[in-house]
């Protein structure tokens, strides 16, 4: 119990004081896409790429996407910060992440690493504008007081579903959404969901859907789910970012065109998705029926 409290406190503190050295949460070094050696052109390109990301001072929307090199030695890289992170903290998070990833993955041509508030990845493959669920990683922090699990789950799921649509509705620089909801009068859940903004809306929507479904498998906990193309973070009780200033970063939703688009994303998209699932189920059912029929005909 004491351990848990300390853990929560550490989590709290590391968010309150962004200057504190944050922890490298996890990383995946992928062998299957090839290895490089210490003095190779690939390694040189990788170093250039990482320093390009870390030293860039033009980008203020927390998403860095660069390539260095050509053909066999190309390195594509993405850096993504949590939307609440100020530019300066974002760069310092990415800088730590860049150092950690070359240290942890000394010769893999494909790797991804997560801090609590930023992600860095690189690959010799083309990784831009592409929906990728994995590698992924999740962290759960238990709720420290008793709460109606069903009510909690209902509140969190309503909140997440709303944010999923909002984030997908973002633009090519920012695809995220953040909000809070009351579970009870004295218990509030906060959530931030985010996609790499180079994704299509539909891909962002489906990545978050996947992350949310994964979250549901473990009921009633605050959590971080880091997927390759998107992530969700749930916090309880404490406010670690200013919702209104966070939301002011998002594209404004005035104007008829964007209203229509919003209707599409928030209402039609879920309907289309459910219809596709239904169609798939029916498809399976009928093709099974047909093959049963065929079998029966064969046996006659
Ligand atoms: C990369 O090296 C690892 C061992 O360090 C090996 O298991 C893996 O098969 C190699 N991958 C390729 C594509 O050569
Ligand atoms: C990098 O990201 C920006 C913003 O989303 C986008 O406009 C641009 O096309 C991306 N570049 C590449 C190489 O994908
Ligand atoms: C949540 O509860 C607080 C305190 O009871 C209240 O002030 C606030 O309006 C509630 N928020 C929502 C979104 O219901
Ligand atoms: C939480 O709610 C979601 C959505 O209503 C549901 O799919 C999920 O099974 C629930 N999780 C648990 C553990 O009850």
Keywords:
300 residues, five-stranded antiparallel sheet, 7 helices, globular, disordered C terminus, binds 2-acetamido-2-deoxy-beta-D-glucopyranose
Net shape: globular
Query: Which ligands accompany this protein?
Result: 2-acetamido-2-deoxy-beta-D-glucopyranose
Instruction: Please state the structural category.
Output: alpha+beta
Beta-strand residue fraction: 25-35%
Sheet having the most strands: 5 strands, antiparallel
Straight-line distance between termini: 68 Å
Order of helices and strands: HEHEEHEEEHEEHEEHH
Helix content: 40-55%
Q: Count of helical segments? A: 7
Quantity of strands, as a count: 10
Q: Low-confidence stretches at least 5 residues in length (pLDDT < 50)? A: 1-21, 293-300
Strand order of the biggest β-sheet: 1-4-5-3-2
> Rounded to an integer, what's the Rg over CA atoms?
22 Å
- Report the average pLDDT across residues: 81
Describe this structure in words.
- With 300 residues, the protein is an alpha+beta fold.
- It is built from seven helices and ten strands.
- The protein has helices at residues 2-16, 41-55, 87-104, 149-168, 201-216, 243-247, 256-299; strands at residues 24-35, 63-68, 75-81, 108-115, 118-123, 137-142, 175-184, 187-195, 221-226, 230-236.
- The chain has a five-stranded antiparallel sheet. The chain has a five-stranded antiparallel sheet with strand order 6-9-10-8-7.
- It is globular, with a radius of gyration of 22 Å.
- Residues 1-21 and 293-300 have low confidence and may be disordered.
- The structure holds 2-acetamido-2-deoxy-beta-D-glucopyranose (4 copies).
- One 2-acetamido-2-deoxy-beta-D-glucopyranose is lined by residues 31-32, 34-35.
């Amino acid at each position: 119990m004491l351990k848990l409290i300390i853990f929560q406190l550490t989590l709290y503190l590391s968010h309150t004081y962004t200057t504190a050295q944050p922890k490298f949460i996890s990383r995946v070094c992928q062998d299957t896409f090839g290895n490089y050696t210490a003095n190779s052109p690939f390694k040189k390109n990788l170093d250039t790429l990482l320093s390009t990301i870390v030293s860039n001072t033009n980008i203020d929307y927390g998403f860095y996407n660069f390539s260095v090199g050509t053909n066999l030695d190309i390195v594509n890289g993405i850096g993504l910060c949590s939307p609440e992170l100020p530019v300066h903290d974002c760069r310092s998070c990415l800088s730590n992440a860049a150092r950690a990833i070359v240290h942890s993955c000394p010769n893999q041509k494909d790797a991804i690493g997560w801090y609590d508030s930023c992600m860095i990845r690189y690959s010799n493959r083309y990784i831009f504008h592409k929906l990728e669920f994995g590698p992924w990683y999740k962290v759960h922090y238990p709720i420290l007081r008793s709460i109606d699990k069903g009510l909690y789950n209902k509140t969190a799921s309503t909140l997440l579903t709303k944010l999923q649509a909002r984030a997908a509705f973002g633009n090519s620089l920012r695809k995220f959404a953040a909000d809070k909801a009351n579970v009870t009068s004295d218990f509030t859940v906060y959530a931030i969901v985010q996609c790499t903004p180079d994704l299509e809306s539909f891909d962002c929507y489906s990545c978050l859907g996947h992350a949310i479904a994964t979250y549901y498998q473990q009921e009633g906990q605050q959590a971080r789910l880091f997927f390759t193309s998107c992530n969700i973070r749930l916090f309880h009780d404490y406010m670690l970012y200013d919702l209104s200033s966070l939301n002011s970063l998002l594209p404004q939703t005035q104007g008829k065109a964007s209203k229509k688009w919003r209707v599409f994303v928030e209402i039609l998209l879920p309907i289309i998705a459910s219809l596709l699932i239904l169609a798939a189920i029916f498809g399976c059912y009928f093709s099974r029926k047909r093959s049963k029929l065929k079998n029966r005909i064969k046996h006659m």
